[in-house]
Structure formats: C-alpha cells, structure tokens
Amino acid sequence: MKLVLPLLFCFILLGCSMKQMVIDERVSFIDVGWNSHLRLTNVLSTVSEDGHLIVQVKGLNDGSSYQKLQYRIQWLNKSGLFIPTILTRWVDFPAFQNSPFNFQEIAPSTKATSFQILIRENAL
Amino acid sequence: MKTSESNFNQVKFGFCFVSFIKLSFLSLVLFSLVGCATKTANIDMHNDQGQAVMGLDYRDFQKAAGEAVGSMLQSGAVNKRGGGRYILAISRVVNDTMQRIDTRQLIKKIRVQLLQSGKVVVTTAVGGNGPEDHMAMQARQLRESDEFNQKTVAKKGQMIAPDLSLSGRIIQRVVTIDSSTQQSEYYFQLTLTDINTGLAFWEGETVIGKRGSSNSVAW
C-alpha cells in the first residue's frame, strides 16, 4: 500500500503533463530533432460542396521560442497517383511559442482524394 | 675556356629558373581565378534554399499565384451554379513596380491551375490587351476563300463570350529604414469580375516584404 500510493500519484502527474498528440501517417515532420517541441494535435479533412478536399492541420509548439515552419502538400487521386499542381510548394507558417498552430489547404481539383504533408523548419 | 662554359651554363640555368618562376606564378594566378569563379548550378525548384533577393523572383510569383488560386477555390467564386465551367477572360494586369515584369508570368500560373481545377476555361479570343491568339479571328477570314473547304471553316456564332474577367495590379512600395537598410513591399492585387453584372466576385491580395541593404537596388 505504501508503494501503490506514490506510484498512483506519479502516474497521475505523468498523465497531466503529457500533451495531447496524434499520429497520422499522412503528416510527417522532417528535419526536426528528437527534442523537438512540435506536436501534431489534429488532422481534419472534409469535402466541400463542390467536391474539393479541404485539409486542416492543427499542432502545438510547446517550446519557449517562436519557430518559422514550412509545409508542403502533395495531392493524390483515387489511384494513389500524385497530382501535379502549383499548390504543391513549401509554404511558410508561424508557430508561436507555447501556442497552437494551424493551416488549411484546398485540393486543386475534385480528383484529389488523399494527401501527404511534410512539415519542416524554415532554414532561411 | 672552362670559365666561359660555366658562365654560359650559369646564364642558361638562371634563364630557365626565371622562366619557371614566371610560369608558376602565372599558373597560380590562373588557378586562383578559376577557383574564385562562382560555379553555375541548376536550381532545385522543389527545395530552393537560395538567398532571397530584393527584387521579385520565381518563388514570389509561385507564392502569389498559389495563394490566389487557393483563395479563389475556397471562396467558391468559380463554382458555376448548376455545374459546368465558367469562361474566363484575362483583362489587364498592371505592373506598377520599378521592375520589368511580364505579368503573364503570374497569370499563366493562375490560369493553368484554374483550368486543372475543372471550374474555369480561359478564352484566348478576347482579352484586356486584345486577343491572346489572333488566329481564332483570322481563321474566319477563310470564309471568303475558295481554296478552303467551307465545311471546315469555323461557323458564325460559335465563339463563346466570357463570363468572368481577371484583372489586377502589382504594386511596389519602398521604405527606407535607415541609411543602410531599405524595405521593399510588393502587393499582388487580383480581382475576378462577373462581366454580366460588373460585380467583383472575388478579390485577393498577397503581400511580399523584403528587407535588405540599401545598396541592393530592387529593379
């Protein structure tokens, strides 16, 4: 009983300190170290009235410094083939310290049914 | 006799030595010049980590065009009621910067993407600066020619008038921060007008700001 109580207390503390985090194979962080403060919290995709896929990605920068990030989306058709588009490019977005970040993109055509997103720190 | 021979050898050796030094020096200069020259390399368009420039480069056009298309698609302005595709005419896009810019660079990216979206078809028969392709009208002059099979000549009333018009302006503003730093702001402003009503269905603006040395001139 003497051991159980401290262990239980530790588990509760650990549970409170853990950030909400999701793993989505469609979104990858690249060029970020093991001690990165970037967390993915939500990936939402929906289809608009006119049939365009809309993607919204939410994350969290739980570090104490501002980070300039970039994302790149590749759109895929129902066969899994990439759709070439000028919308596939590195796009800058901010991740303020100890704050959530998010971005939204719309598919270039109604043929897009899936996507792959890369996120990285902006080296420039 | 021996003395004169040794003198001759000494002179010969001295001459060779001087030539060798001269040649070595020249080679060294040439090598250093070649080493200093900037090597030419192809730009990796998918991951260009090159330094930003005070003027506008292809990355800025990509950004402006990408944002415009994304915003147009998200706004629903190019969704035709009852389905089908809008016919878009390219009106005037004015370059109001100090740089020599062919605004077709920006417009081409936008129209290619809009065409791929399946929502819009661009007409090349009419435009703000006249028709982009004069052949559509010129080919109609063949109606008077006996040399052409008249069944293959474009008929009257076949061309489709545009529903929408895309116009815009690229503006540059230069702000001096201090004696050595200046800021160039570029505004890409685009408007999509419904030709029937004259109402702007969509408007978008992308701002690109650059701060750098006053010595680097932005044109």
Topology:
The complex is a heterodimer of chains A (124) and B (219).
Chain A: H1 4-17, E1 27-29, E2 38-47, E3 53-61, E4 67-77, E5 82-83, E6 91-95, E7 99-106, E8 112-121
Parallel strand pairs in A: 1-8
Antiparallel strand pairs in A: 2-3, 3-7, 4-5, 4-6, 4-8
Chain B: H1 2-36, H2 58-75, E1 86-96, H3 104-117, E2 120-127, H4 135-138, E3 164-176, E4 181-194, E5 199-213
Parallel strand pairs in B: 1-2, 1-3
Antiparallel strand pairs in B: 3-4, 4-5
What does this entry show, briefly?
Chain A is mainly β and 124 residues long. Chain A contains 1 helix and 8 strands.
Tell me what the structure shows.
The complex is a heterodimer of chains A (124) and B (219). Chain A has 124 residues and is mostly beta strands. Helix content of chain A is 11%, strand content 47%. Chain A is globular. Chain A starts with a helix and ends with a strand. Residues 13-18 of chain A have low confidence and may be disordered. In chain B, strands 2-1-3-4-5 form a 5-stranded mixed beta sheet. In chain B, strand 4 (181-194) and strand 5 (199-213) form a beta hairpin. In chain B, helix 2 (58-75) runs parallel beside helix 3 (104-117). In chain B, 32% of the residues lie in helices and 28% in strands. By secondary structure, chain B is α/β, with parallel strands linked by helices. Chain B has helices at 2-36, 58-75, 104-117, 135-138, and strands at 86-96, 120-127, 164-176, 181-194, 199-213. The A-B interface holds A 48-50, 52, 54, 85-87, 89-91, 105-106, 108-111, 123-124 and B 47, 49, 51-52, 62-63, 65-66, 69-70, 73-74, 76, 79, 109, 112-113, 116-119.
